[in-house]
Amino acid sequence: QFHPTGMIEPEGMDGRLVTEAVRGEGGRLYNSEGERFMERYSPKHMELDARDVVARANYREIREGRGTPDGAVLLDISHRDPGYIKDRLPNMYEQFVEQGVDITEEPMKVSPTAHYGMGGIEVDPRTCATAVEGLFAVGESTAGVHGANRLGGNSLAETVVFGKILGAHLADVLDDLLPPVPLDEGAAQEHFAALDVLATGTGGGERDPEGLIDELRDLVWDHAGIVRTGDGLREGIVKLRDLKKRAGELAIPDASTSRRFEHVLNLRAMLTAAEAVMRGALAREESRGAHHREDFPEEADGWQKNILCAGDEGGDMHLWTEPVGEVPAEIRKALDEDYSLDYHYLE
Question: Which residues form the domain of 36?
């Protein structure tokens, strides 16, 4: 999921969220021409439309040359009373004052930023168990709760709800889980051998894992970002294969204590996640929620299903689809109720 408003400066804070409470309290988005451009994209909801709608609008304004020279649009709440801003948005006021920007008098420079992963590990929602025996997961690492477009605040709610479910389940079955399954020494040795190969590398250690992580982030942003196309995704997957090959040539001296070794392990996991995102996005020939294909701009009834992936015996990634479950009647009733949210509490 892409958040519409992230900071663009200073370096090190780029991507830091500018809460949607700013827009909830009356913040307005302007391009470099002084136009309140959401009137073109969403005249009914304006800046308060769904995250994906506002994020794409900001992205298009910047991409089509109506952003600031440093690649931003302007979020302005200075028309509100300064005391009101400080009372309702104290964290945002302080966050920008620290950077020399007084939001009671001048606009904030913002740009869309990657915010949340709605995909993740498949778990049993009744127990939070994964496909790995004895391994459980809750929160953003898992998938299935938020559909195509998570609502603000629901990540915390998910963690609380499923954390309680998992805790209650473990309290009931813990005695059956212990003692743990006897260690498979062969599997352990195979794992340690793979780490040894990773630690020694094959290319003399010339490549920097942090540099490859930055390259991977740019690659995914450019080819699987807010607006996607089939050609762009295919090109990105080709580049990903090359980056994966170069990542395999890393060498890490003093692996057991090296921060570099940690970055290599992170990179390996990130490469897997990136491939899943890009191949899933290429397969899904429609637009739905936070996933937007410029070459398939509408929802397709035939794609109301989930994409799953797993490694096969040859080490490649296998994708398949499963239908989305029916929404229970009591939940459907709650969804049909008319609820409103005070954005003040989202800060």
Answer: 2-114
Within this chain, do residues 110 and 144 fall inside the same structural domain, yes or no? no
Both 110 and 121 in one domain: the answer is no
Euclidean distance between CA atoms 3 and 56, whole angstroms: 10
Residue 269 to residue 281: CA distance in whole angstroms: 18
The helix-helix angle for 259-283 and 209-224 (nearest 10°) equals 20
36 is catalytic: no
Residue 182 DSSP label = P
Going by the DSSP 8-state scheme, the letter that residue 315 receives in this structure is S
Determine the residue type at 314: G
Both 108 and 121 in one domain: the answer is: no
Which domain CATH number covers 66?
Answer: 3.90.700.10
For the question of residue 79 being annotated catalytic, the response is: no
> Could you say which of 3, 263, 284, 288 is catalytic?
3
Q: Name the residue among 237, 230, 233 with its Cα closest to residue 295.
A: 230
Q: What confidence tens digit (pLDDT) does each residue in 10-19 have?
A: 887 888 899 9
Q: Is 133 helix (H, G, I), strand (E, B) or coil?
A: coil
| CA–CA distance, 292 with 174 (Å, rounded to integer) | 43
**Among 23, 28, 223, 279, which one carries the catalytic annotation?**
23
- Tokens representing residue 258 in the block: 């090296």
Strand partners, 129: 136
- Three-class SS of residue 273? helix
Report which listed range, 167-181, 226-240, 310-324, is most confident. Answer: 226-240
Q: Please name the residue ranges forming H helices in the chain.
A: 21-24, 38-41, 51-63, 82-88, 90-97, 154-177, 185-200, 209-224, 230-247, 259-283, 329-336
- What is the value of pTM for the model shown? 0.84
- Sequence-distant (6+) residues with CB within 8 A of 84 are 25
The reply to whether 192 and 245 lie within a common domain is yes
Q: Which amino acid is at 302?
A: G
Domain count, the chain: 3
